[in-house]
């Protein structure tokens, strides 16, 4: 725990984390997402897992291509700069000998990483993660613009502050009108091209002048293909750029490579990719509408049930392009409120665990620290800190998500269609972003009903089916002595 007199608790958290991941010499890269500090390690064996999990600020850990420390929303964005600064300071001033040379550490880390990839990685999974990396940096802008759009809608419907409404509309819509450029920039950056060239090619999609272009008897419209077209155009630009660099003389590279990259990729985008991506985008919107209007409760049940496993695998971020496409087309994504029910089931399961294990101070301490984030739709702390290590409660949490999803799916089938105007927030934080045909009050009531259903079913399923008698006995035996429960957030796996 950070010292009481430390004016910067985030610095103290970083100081506690660094030695437990093997020190600065064991780190090759640092990044973070909305909830996790992502560390690329040289030697996985140097990490002190149990001590790290025991830190009060740590809500869980995830091991994937990177070692991921779950710190929670807000906290991770403040701890990461402090952690980076500590690593930089240690590298600048550390001239002492190490047990292993940098080359030896790199070799061992590379071998471990290769072994993990051989066990777990598939080409499709890696591709989805890279696509997710394109969109994750855009989430803060999507959230901010979405909330402003919701506020603008309230003002427009109420007739309040009429002079402010056009200004808010411009602020909320400006980013979305140019999102293709940002997607193109990030795509080129992620796949090893020059970012600004990716953005330049993707900008063709939103240029108003494309309405004058006709090919194959069809006319283009600005924005046709949306973010999917931008993703494909920038990816093509990366490959064209790399191809150019294999044969263009170095003396002419600065002139020919960017020119040919933009020209060739731009022409293919205008006379091919925009049409194809436009059809795919339209198909996504049609499929989402039919899925809920025809499938209703059953579709909602399946979506709500399987979203937590996607979060566990980190593959939920691959849905971001679909959400973004739906927002571009319809003004909101109908999928997000249903998928948010998975978090409601997780919260209900956590509350049930709290009451079922009244003497286990360690687990209750973890739930106490992670539950507020859970109500706001951030599920990783509860998943990795509580339900997944326990095993069965993770399945019963999925049951709660399925029930909440079925509740909302039923109303979609009855004609009460609504969605979220932005992605990122979930749980209670999604209320300001809801918009749809039933009107604001009915929309809020349906979503609230789905949350309550998820909470209740997640609680009841976990209470009655989340533990076997043997599990309860073993967890009681592991219970921390009075006064020591808050000292650890570690949950030991107990299999039925």
Account of the 3D structure:
The protein has 496 residues and is an alpha+beta fold. The protein folds into three domains: 9-121, Gyrase A, domain 2 (2-Layer Sandwich), CATH 3.30.1360.60; 135-293, no CATH class; 331-487, no CATH class. The chain is built from 19 helices and eight strands. The strands form three sheets. The protein has a four-stranded antiparallel β-sheet, with helices on both faces. The model is unreliable at 1-5, 95-113 and 480-496 (pLDDT under 50).
What can be said about this structure in brief?
This protein is of the alpha+beta class. Helix content is 65%, strand content 6%. The two termini are 33 Å apart.
Unreliable parts: 1-5, 95-113, 480-496
CA(first)-CA(last) distance? 33 Å
Shape: globular
With strands numbered from the N-terminus, the spatial order across the biggest sheet is 1-2-4-3
Mean pLDDT across all residues, rounded? 83
Structural class: alpha+beta
Write the layout of secondary structure elements.
Layout: H1 9-20, E1 27-32, E2 36-41, H2 49-53, E3 60-63, E4 67-70, H3 75-93, H4 102-120, H5 123-135, H6 139-158, H7 165-177, H8 179-190, H9 195-206, E5 214-215, E6 218-219, H10 226-245, H11 250-313, H12 320-330, H13 335-339, H14 341-356, H15 361-375, H16 380-390, H17 392-413, E7 418-420, E8 434-436, H18 440-465, H19 469-477
Antiparallel strand pairs: 1-2, 2-4, 3-4, 5-6, 7-8
Helix pairs in contact: 1-3, 5-8, 6-7, 8-9, 8-10, 9-10, 9-11, 10-11, 11-12, 11-14, 11-17, 14-15, 14-16, 14-17, 14-18, 15-16, 16-17, 17-18
């Amino acid at each position: 725990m950070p010292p009481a007199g430390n004016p910067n608790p985030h610095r103290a958290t970083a100081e506690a984390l660094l030695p437990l991941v093997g020190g600065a010499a064991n780190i090759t890269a640092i990044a973070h997402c909305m909830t996790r500090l992502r560390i690329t390690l040289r030697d996985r064996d140097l990490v002190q897992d149990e001590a790290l999990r025991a830190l009060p600020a740590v809500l869980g850990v995830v091991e994937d291509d990177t070692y991921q420390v779950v710190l929670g929303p807000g906290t991770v964005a403040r701890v990461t700069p402090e952690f980076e600064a500590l690593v930089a300071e240690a590298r600048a001033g550390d001239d002492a000998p190490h047990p292993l040379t940098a080359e030896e550490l790199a070799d061992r880390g590379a071998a471990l990483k290769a072994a993990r990839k051989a066990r777990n990685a598939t080409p499709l999974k890696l591709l989805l993660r890279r696509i997710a990396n394109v969109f994750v940096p855009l989430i803060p802008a999507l959230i901010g613009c979405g909330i402003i759009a919701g506020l603008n809608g309230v003002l427009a419907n109420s007739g309040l502050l009429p002079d402010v409404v056009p200004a808010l509309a411009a602020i909320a819509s400006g980013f979305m009108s140019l999102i293709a450029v940002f997607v193109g920039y990030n795509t080129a950056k992620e796949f090893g091209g020059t970012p600004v060239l990716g953005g330049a090619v993707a900008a063709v999609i939103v240029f108003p002048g494309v309405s004058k272009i006709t090919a194959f008897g069809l006319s283009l419209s600005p924005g046709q293909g949306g973010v999917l077209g931008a993703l494909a155009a920038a990816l093509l630009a990366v490959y064209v750029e790399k191809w150019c660099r294999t044969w263009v003389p170095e003396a002419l590279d600065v002139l020919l490579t960017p020119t040919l990259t933009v020209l060739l990729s731009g022409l293919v985008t205008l006379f091919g990719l925009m049409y194809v991506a436009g059809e795919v985008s339209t198909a996504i919107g049609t499929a989402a509408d039919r899925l809920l209007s025809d499938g209703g409760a059953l579709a909602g049940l399946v979506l709500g049930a399987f979203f937590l496993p996607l979060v566990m695998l980190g593959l939920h971020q691959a849905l971001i392009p679909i959400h973004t496409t739906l927002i571009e087309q319809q003004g909101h994504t109908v999928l997000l409120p249903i998928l948010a029910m998975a978090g409601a089931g997780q919260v209900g399961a956590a509350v049930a665990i709290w009451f079922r294990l009244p003497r286990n101070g360690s687990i209750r301490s973890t739930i106490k620290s992670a539950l507020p984030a859970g109500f706001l739709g951030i599920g990783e702390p509860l998943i990795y800190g509580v339900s997944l290590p326990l095993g069965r409660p993770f399945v019963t949490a999925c049951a709660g998500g399925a029930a909440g999803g079925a509740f909302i799916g039923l109303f979609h089938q009855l004609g009460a269609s609504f969605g979220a105007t932005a992605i990122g927030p979930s749980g209670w934080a999604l209320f300001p972003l809801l918009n749809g045909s039933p009107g604001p009050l009915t929309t809020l009531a349906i979503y609230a009903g789905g949350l309550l259903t998820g909470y209740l079913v997640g609680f009841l399923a976990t209470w009655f089916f989340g533990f076997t008698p043997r599990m309860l006995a073993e967890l009681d035996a592991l219970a921390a002595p009075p006064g020591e429960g808050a000292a650890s957030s570690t949950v030991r796996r107990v299999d039925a």
